[in-house]
Amino acid sequence: MLVSEVPKLGKEAALKAIKDWGRPISDITHLVFATSSGTLRLAKDLAENNAGARVLVVCVDSTAICFTGPSENHMDRLVGQAIFGDGAAAAIVGAVFNTTADERPLFRMVAAAQTTIPNSTDALHGNLTEKGFAYSLSAKIPLHIGSNIEKCMEEALAPLGISDWNSVFYVVHPGGPAVLNQVEENLGLEPEKLRVSRDVLREYGNMWGPTVLFILDEMRKKVIDQGMATTGEGLEWGVLLAFGPGLTVETILLKSVAIY
Question: Per-residue pLDDT tens for 123-144?
């Protein structure tokens, strides 16, 4: 994909989200645009603190700009270049949906939190070199995430009295196969729990910010095709987990809605 194509894809993603939403574009009250960062937590705050707000979230990332070729000092860059992909996605967030406008929410964001993993400062960082911008990825990233993921789950689900990690649905940012493997292993998850995340990684790569929105959309399609009772693969509660520099873990507690 050419870098110049990415802004166009962002516009197309936004228009598609508005079309699926079903209300006129003039009803959008806020726009959140982001690259390489979490946006849903910010959109949630805006929607909850502005009566009647409808926040259009547009996330666009071009990982092609980070392609710098092999480096003897940073062979780890080849890993990112192998799994990264360009992407654009959009979603609309509101605090209270309008039944008279025939709005049909897909998921409810109940709570959000950000956790910084200890002793992981050098695990993931960007470098501006004479050849361009490049990310350096430590081989310890999956282990860092795996050893801290249960704590994030406990903080999100303990208030609900949930301790069975297989009783909820998952939207997990696929930083790579090893990251998903560590999450699955440390939480003792059944293979099907991360199936949608693995499918998106296989089809599109790690698109940075837009990836979790792709997973939410793929889950929506899956549950409709399979006739499940709720948007969360037939379950009531779920978690969205995303990972980024810091290392940080973004956790959003999700509640599914009934399929109409």
Answer: 877 766 666 666 777 889 999 9
Quickly state the pLDDT bin for 4 (edges 50, 70, 90): very low
Q: Does residue 247 have a cis peptide bond before it, meaning omega lies within 30 degrees of 0?
A: yes
Q: What is the 3-state secondary structure (H, E, C) of the chain?
A: CCHHHHHHHHHHHHHHHHHHHCCCHHHCCEEEEECCCCCHHHHHHHHHCCCCCEEEEEEEECHHHHCCCCCCCCCCHHHHHHHECCEEEEEEEECCCCHHHCCCCCEEEEEEEEEECCCCCCCEEEEEECCEEEEEECCCHHHHHHHHHHHHHHHHHHHHCCCCHHHCEEEECCCCHHHHHHHHHHHCCCHHHHHHHHHHHHHHCECCCCHHHHHHHHHHHHHHHCCCCECECCECEEEEEEEECCCEEEEEEEEECECC
Question: Are the CB atoms for 170 and 238 separated by under 8 Å?
Answer: yes
